Amino acid sequence: MSRIVVIGSGIAGLFAALRLDEAGHDVVIITKQRPKDSSTNWAQGGIAGILDKTDGEGKDAHISDTLAAGDGLCDETVVRLVVEEAGDRIRDLLKAGVQFEKDGEEFHFVKEGGHTARRILHAKDATGAEIERALTEAVSKSDKITMRPHTLGVDLIQRQHGDPSKGIKGIWCLCLDSGEMEAISADAVLIATGGCGQLWERTTNPSVATGDGLAMALRAGAASKDMAFFQFHPTALMGNNKKPFLITEALRGEGGVLLDSKGLKKYRNSNLQPQELSFTLEFSKDGSLATRDVVARACDQKMKITGEDNVWLVTDHLDTQILHDHFPTIEGRLNKIGLSLGRDPLPVAPAAHYMVGGLKVDIDGRVLMENGEAMPGLYGIGEVACTGMHGANRLASNSLLEAVVFANKASEHFINNPIDDIEDVPEWRAEGMLELEEHAPLIRDLETLRKTMTDDVGIVRSFSRLERANRMLNLLSGEVDLIWRKSLPTRELVELRNLILVANLITDDALSRDENRGLHWNKDLI
Ligand code: SIN
Questions:
Q1: pLDDT at res. 239
Q2: Residue 194's closest CA among 403, 447, 45, 374?
Q3: I want to staple 203 with a disulfide (CB 3.0 to 4.6 A). Which of 46, 97, 352, 520 is the partner?
Q4: Which of the four pLDDT bands, split at 50, 70 and 90, describes residue 241?
Q5: 290: left (phi over 0), alpha (psi -120 to 50) or beta
Q6: Which residues, including other chains, have CB under 8 Å from residue 231's CB and lie 6 or more apart?
Q7: Among 74-83, 428-437, 460-469, where is mean pLDDT lowest?
Q8: Which residues share a beta bridge with 314?
Q9: Is the CB of 44 under 6 A from ligand 1?
Q10: Is residue 268 annotated as part of the catalytic site, yes or no?
Q11: CB–CB of 10/41 below 8 Å?
Q12: Cα dihedral across residues 387, 388, 393, 394: positive or negative
């Protein structure tokens, strides 16, 4: 039987591990912090999908909403496949112990931006945490799956150094508890490391989202796709601390409305309904529930015009019992800062949320090289991968679905085409390397990187700002490279090196585009 290393412990990594385990393979999951420190665990909204396989109309509507949100760049074959498989994969999740919200005997569905129907299964407003709970429990019951927390993947080991076409035979890791490097051999590696929201100053992502898997695969010869499309979530709570808290789009699905200060004042002093007063209507007839690219841009533009740090999400016209029952996590968080759901306008602003581009993969989740061929023994699943499902802008709650469908596809591909060829792997080249004496320069460089991405590679871009970012990134890249070549790896160094590489890809892809589409918006192209 084979040994597979899975990097990452969100929905994609855990689901794939369970599938491979069922087929009798040994799996080692390496994860940078605790298993639950994943973007999945932070997901609030839910998982979109039509459960009833015979509901052709429902599936067609899901397909057309996904294609519309993707603004003409989705791969329709992939969209159809994912929507078609949704029912089976969601049933797999139920079998694994995930408990979605029910209304009596029936599942309760919510709606989010860009969806024309209620088709999102959820577990109140903490869907990701419920999925993570059930899957980590299931994984912990297997004696063929080894969970390695506090283990940071640093670089992939090629079967033949310098020749990606020969494939991957393992990974070098940094054990964060001991500070030691370790080489782990594998027949295949599945990358499920999520995104890179930590590139921006304001993000809804956990601290682990530093683009590690993407960067290590690129260094090993993989190709990336559509990196310019990075999704900002329109409604992250503005607090006085720097860590924004997501306010799920499902709240707007229940009727929450975005207002600017002028609209809020008018709402308070008139009998008008908030929907009629939303600035988002200037951008789309769907108002606060338009697709995420449109709503985030509308918020960004309004904030620039008013000079304010936020817009407002109002919910006081909604049924307080429904809000209380469906959004307990948000309610609890608001109460901690003296705000009340269903009473107070909530100060919200966009924050970096989801990497739509990523590793170029095929329909089986195999990572592709620049020549379009698959790299043997390497798979990319979940947010790290660009399958074509999301096009230029992801439809809300399609990401957990895509992750679980492609985790299944990649596992099936390996099970049907197993590699059983463990080779010796070389130790990390530590000779002559010194312990990093000072981390302060890295911390300053990280601050500069985040500032650059926030100011110059945000929701609205321009050629001059992108070029400025490019120059800054080249400088940072040179600095970090100097340190890298003479130092033993530390978490800070590995992450910064990865983030800079990914930032470069995003900026280069944005600079190369000559049209505005979905999430890429360059004001020089209007
Ligand atoms: C949300 O709950 O608003 C986020 C859902 C998603 O990103 O798909």
A1: 76
A2: 403
A3: 352
A4: low
A5: beta
A6: 292, 293, 296, 353, 354, 355, 356, 393, 394, 519
A7: 428-437
A8: 257
A9: yes
A10: no
A11: yes
A12: negative
Give dist(CA 400, CA 66) in Å, integer: 14
Is residue 240 pLDDT above 80, yes or no? no
341 three-class SS = coil
Predicted TM-score (pTM) of the model is 0.97
The tokens describing 523, both together, are 């004001």
Q: How far apart are CA 283 and CA 302, in angstroms?
A: 11
Residue 367 has pLDDT above 80, yes or no: yes
Cα 156 from Cα 184, distance rounded (Å): 10
State which ligand 1 atom lies nearest to the alpha carbon of 125.
2
Residue 431's pLDDT band, with cuts at 50, 70 and 90, is confident
pLDDT mean over 62-76: 98
Report whether residue 396 contacts ligand 1, using a CB cutoff of 6 Å.
Answer: yes
Q: How far, in Å, is the centroid of ligand 1 from the Cα of 397?
A: 6
How many whole angstroms from 249 Cα to the centroid of ligand 1? Answer: 6
- Calculate ∠ Cα 163-169-173, nearest 5°: 110
Q: What is the pLDDT of residue 24?
A: 97
Q: Which residues contact 371 (CB under 8 A, 6 or more apart)?
A: none
Length of the chain: 526
Mutate to test the pocket of ligand 1, among 119, 121, 249 (most ligand atoms within 8 A of CB): 249
Annotated catalytic residue, options 148, 202, 292, 450: 292
Helix H or strand E segment including 257 = strand 257-259
Burial of 107 (0-12, 13-18, 19+ CB in 10 A): middle
Q: Are 25 and 3 in contact (CB under 8 A)?
A: yes
Ligand 1 atom with the smallest distance to the CA of 397 is 8
Which candidate, 506, 236, 168, 226, places its Cα nearest to that of 359? 226
